[in-house]
Target: Phosphotransferase
Amino acid sequence: MPDAFQRLSHRQRSLVAEWLPGAVVEADLGWGLVETTVLAVSARGERFVVKAGGPSDRSVAREIDAHRNWLGPWTAIGRAPALVHHDAGAKLLVTEYLPGTLVLDTPHAAQPGIYRQAGELLAAFHAQTAVVDDRHEQQENERVLAWLDRPHRISPTTAHRIRAMIERWPTPPAVLVPTHGDWHTRNWLVDGGTLSIIDFDRVALRPAATDVARLAGNEFRRYPGTEGAFLAGYGRDPREPEAWFRLRVREAVSTAAWAYRVGDEAYEAHGHRMIAELLAEHPA
Model:
């Protein structure tokens, strides 16, 4: 891929040359939906992953923060890639390359044992700290209303109904823990039956149930036995019914609106399906 490095800024290319002399691109690992470039490279007989953000990118800084502050429970046992180099100002980081196959849409995605491992890893991650936030629920409501204020293809009637619902919601204090923020099979690698985790640009303090939302909306529905295996690995069910409903509505709206913004029609349709199902649960 002779042109892959050309997507990086001059500063980013200079840093890669300094950190990894003679680096050669082996694969483009990006999804093509956002302006972050993700490359598998080799240098000095080793393999690395280079992540470089574009002009308006904020995800690389979040990922650097995650590596520096939260990934210890996983990197200590080789279940997440260790940070090798970083420059937040240049929007650039380099990590170890973890071998393995993405679990997404492979036979591994139907194996309960993979989900039990995912539950165990997530429990260790969540256990690092916990804080009470009196403003979290209100801030999350404001965030989802902001998505409704942006361009989207949610029908006006549905958007009005969601707004009215949110206005009636309570805003109790929330317990926040370190969360991955995109916890599902697209960010899981399996190698020899062992699960590892990648992609940390959404790591933040949130309610623990946040990391169940995407699994509940997709994999748990598709693959029998995976929900029970995940909860067995996690050790308990972190979902409180009323807060769980509010969380899922926010997730559905942001999914549909974000996917529309980046042009991912399949993921947008998934968001609209979630909205319809949730409103059917709450017919008022």
Remarks:
- The longest helix spans residues 241-262.
- The mean pLDDT is 94.
